Prior knowledge:
It is a single chain. The chain is 41% helix and 15% strand. It is an alpha/beta fold. It folds into four domains: 3-103, 3-Layer(aba) Sandwich (Glutaredoxin); 124-330, NADH-ubiquinone oxidoreductase 51kDa subunit (Rossmann fold, 3-Layer(aba) Sandwich), CATH 3.40.50.11540; 333-423, Ubiquitin-like (UB roll), CATH 3.10.20; 428-511, de novo design (two linked rop proteins) (Up-down Bundle), CATH 1.20.1440. β3 and β4 (62-65) form a beta hairpin. α9 crosses α11 and α17 runs antiparallel to α18 (448-465). The radius of gyration is 24 Å and the shape is globular.
Amino acid sequence: MTITVYVPCDATALSLGADQIADDFVRLSAQTGHDIRLVRNGSRGLFWLEPLVEIDSGDGVRIAYGPVTGSHDVESLIKTGVLDGHKEHALALGPVTEIPALQAQTRLTFRRIGVTDPRSLDDYRAHGGYQGLEKALQSDAQAIVDAVKESGLRGRGGAAFPTGIKWQTVHDAQADQKYIVCNADEGDSGTFADRLVMECDPFMLIEGMTIAGLAAGASEGYVYLRSEYPVAADIFQHAIDTASAQGWLGDDIRGSGRRFHLHLRIGAEAYICGEETSLLESLEGKRGLVRAKPPLPALVGLFGKPTIVNNVLTFAAVPEILAAGAGEYYKHGEARSRGTLPVQLAGNIRNGGLFEVPFGTPLRTLIEDLGGGTASGHPVRAVQVGGPLGAYLPQSQLDLPLDYEQFAEANAVLGHGGVVVFDDTVDMLEQARFSMAFCAAESCGKCTPCRIGSQRGVEVIDRIRNKENHAMNMALLSDLCDTMVDGSLCAMGGMTPFPVRSAFTHFPDDFK
């Protein structure tokens, strides 16, 4: 009987020694006469348990063990008899599907991640992959757009613009060429969901973008991936090549006569290229500078043609919507925030990782129940949601539900779903300074409020830190924030004041 051993292959697991663990299982099982099948699956997103090894002794039940931290753990597992069907061990977590942190989630977009081999298209299809595209191939373009509208899907990149409306605009535009562009320049602090999609379930992104191409009448697609993700680039390019070879991409998708080609392009470590128009400039081979809007990219986008620009999580949600139906997706969430949000917990957190939950889930539930509180054991003092341009929320706001409108009312943003936790040792004046310094370093330089305002912001905060004319400099900092919000060309300068304002509003003692 063949025993299947699953060892994850994503960047997080690799950084913790997963390759060596995989090699150890092959070597030691051969020495003991065990016939194993090694599968390099994706991560489950439970990073505090990585590397998480799963063993199926032949009964179809995958028993989890973790974290498996080295050769000594592999030797111990084999000596205990885990390859002979014995399931007791100090690292044993029971059936992987019964791990509480997984049971507490509502996995739609991420339901295959950690289950399948990301390099196997057959494995993807065996777990429901390409059912959405098969339905799309039997529908006209307007019906696909309507399904996305009815699902309530909104962009997961930060602005939360209704995806169906954007797709309708490109669908209606008249042009000899249209494009689909995926923003995979995941640069926000504490975010890694895009990386997990591309490393652990890449065919899902390919399927979602292909469906978008059918909806808009676009025959060419581009994925703009940050250069800091070499593992994702390797796995995703393999997926493109495999999908093309098996007829899921190309001039005649599965004999339908419909055409869609997909290309991977690597960025050059510029945070500003996460802004859609800077990204388009970079894709065209130019310096990544923000474009003035209008015209919108949906009408004048890549190479001047109508273009759908969405991020990875937006496209990744589309196959499930088409496969299960818009109503199934819409029933999750609340108000205008429908479906699920893959939240990424990072910073000073005991159980960091990815948790997919319905909109409406309180922030406190994520941090305390799923995340287990701070890693230090100290009380939570501040939480930054939405990346380096997101507001810092105090303890009193942790009951905020994950809802775009309710976050906006609290002068905060959900953004890409990154949540960074700080305990009571954090200096919020330093965090405010970091926000201004980050903007100064990453600004494209095109507009004065962002380019100059951020540098002046660092200088003003330094004077406050040095106790120089406190009242005047606090007033100057507030005025500077107003100028940057009202005068900046894009969200880089326009949102940098969000964390700064929230820091001196909610934590005034740190500025005295």
